[in-house]
């Protein structure tokens, strides 16, 4: 805004020169024109910020000029001046987009004040456009990432994407996303937001497990200045920030019972009250919540309110773990190898096909997040243009096929099998279903072996 240029369009030379000299003393860059045609030529080549425009002009009247300027140069703000103004002219000028209106004669200091007001408006408008551009770029990036992270041709993923598209068409339906850690719950929440009519609003993500109970009301509902020590200014809560958009409550079951009750009240009443205020603030927010825990069990144990669960669970989307959609692994590997190679500046052209076989024998307790991290490490370790199986050292270490070979003189099939089962249980935190998947056997088969070898699962 330091290079703000002002154009004065008036057919009176004395006035043009007087206002030019006055404004140049304030360090503004000022250009002048005596006719509309001259002004239009200037505006084609100069980045004019403010046009000071007389109503009575040769060639056409100032209102017609204002209309043309707003059509061709909508970012230019216009200050109207006239010695023959009436209320109808003022109203018409304002409707056409004029910022200020001055009847002649006027004081130059009043014009200076008007220009300062207009300058501040232009600055705020410029900042808004920059923020809006950054937000739109972020939205595009999020959508792109969603498409990438949710690649897959499996029936399970097609079902998830179909549910996302359908619930996105509603405006206020609360959504509960369930699934193991690393399956992409926040990405699904972002996808619902950007596919919906709320996409121009804010998407605000909150990790509920990270909020102390003492800060719950302040963070969610806001507070007034001076309400408590440290409240040095008014603060909007997360519901206000996400007004018109989507509020994502990750790990919602981590909320303590008193916090759950307060959240339920807001969801029912659709209004909040800042701490220290006596005024309710209406909020229009879609709630998308997520958890990786068994919420039904938590309700039975009295750790989560059933009424809040039903309020949040108007529409549920369950994300399948990666081990239940193994057919998507090659697609995901292809994507991550390409994407991460570019990110890390490595020229990786492909990978050893046996890698897919190793991955198919692994349970991926960390799901897609673990797959991505595993490939990122492999790319970093890779010394040529092709990822080899040994670059996946963590996978090789965990896979049953990586068990060290036994010497013939000590070969004992039962001892080896028992040892491998124990290692599989240790690797999966004694989760029998995951251990069975790791060993590439059924859960029933694992139970029989546990009994056979006297292993405490």
Briefly, what is this?
The chain is of the alpha/beta class. It has helices spanning 13-24, 36-45, 62-72, 87-95, 108-149, 155-168, 185-195, 216-221, 238-241, 257-269, 295-300, 306-312, 329-344, 354-360, 367-381, 393-398, 413-427, 432-439, 443-453, and strands at 5-9, 29-33, 48-54, 77-82, 100-103, 175-178, 203-207, 222-223, 235-236, 246-250, 271-272, 281-282, 286-291, 315-318, 350-351, 386-387.
Please characterize this protein's 3D structure.
- With 457 residues, the chain is α/β, with parallel strands linked by helices.
- It has 4 domains: 5-124, 3-Layer(aba) Sandwich (Rossmann fold), CATH 3.40.50.2300; 152-320, Rossmann fold (3-Layer(aba) Sandwich), CATH 3.40.50; 327-386, Helicase, Ruva Protein, domain 3; 403-453, Homeodomain-like (Arc Repressor Mutant, subunit A, Orthogonal Bundle).
- Helices cover 49% and strands 14% of the residues.
- The protein is elongated.
What is this structure's SSE topology?
Elements: E1 5-9, H1 13-24, E2 29-33, H2 36-45, E3 48-54, H3 62-72, E4 77-82, H4 87-95, E5 100-103, H5 108-149, H6 155-168, E6 175-178, H7 185-195, E7 203-207, H8 216-221, E8 222-223, E9 235-236, H9 238-241, E10 246-250, H10 257-269, E11 271-272, E12 281-282, E13 286-291, H11 295-300, H12 306-312, E14 315-318, H13 329-344, E15 350-351, H14 354-360, H15 367-381, E16 386-387, H16 393-398, H17 413-427, H18 432-439, H19 443-453
